[in-house]
Design brief:
It comes from Polynucleobacter antarcticus. It holds the Pfam family OsmC. InterPro entries: KH_dom-like_a/b (IPR015946), OsmC/Ohr_fam (IPR003718), OsmC/Ohrsf (IPR036102). This is OsmC family protein. The termini are far apart. The protein is 31% helix and 36% strand. The protein is of the alpha+beta class. It has two domains: 31 residues, no CATH class; 98 residues, GMP Synthetase, Chain A, domain 3 (2-Layer Sandwich). The protein has a three-stranded antiparallel sheet, with no helix packed on it. It has a three-stranded mixed sheet with strand order 4-5-6, covered by helices on one side.
């Protein structure tokens, strides 16, 4: 896996990233740090990637369990250390899984497996952060 990050110029703190799979995304900082608030912060992207990684796992696991899943949203709320490096110290992932006749035990198992076995992002972040999760199930 690879990624190239390039500073967009001397008049701000915007960066462009091109991923190894050929996708491009932007990052920027807040005005008080020299940015223009034109894109997500790098740490926000880490949080978003964590949610995407875990949601991906949950959907795949539920599909393999023959569950009629039609939606999976994850709201992440994180706390960071007060001093540098301002690593994540707490992260809660709140899953809202939608589908027809979903079995609670299978949804709970899918989230647990992602959390404890499959999600590479949470596996890395658990080194500095207490990671918790909560689950809501919504019917179609």
């Amino acid at each position: 896996m690879e990624c190239t990050v390039s500073w967009m110029g001397t008049d701000g703190m915007a960066f462009s990233a091109e991923t190894g799979s050929g996708h491009r995304l932007m990052m920027d900082g807040p005005p008080d740090a020299g940015g223009q608030n034109s894109a997500a912060r790098p740490m926000e992207l880490i949080l978003a990637g964590t949610g995407g990684c875990s949601a991906f796992d949950v959907v795949v696991i539920l599909q393999r369990a023959k569950q009629a899943v039609s939606g999976c949203d994850v709201k992440l709320v994180a706390e960071r250390a007060a001093v540098e490096p301002k690593v994540f110290t707490k992260i809660n992932l709140h899953f809202t899984v939608t589908g027809k006749d979903l079995e609670r035990s299978k949804v709970e198992r899918a989230v647990k497996l992602s959390h404890e076995k499959y999600c590479s992002a949470t596996s890395m972040l658990v080194k500095t952060a207490e990671i918790t999760y909560t689950i809501d199930i919504a019917s179609e």
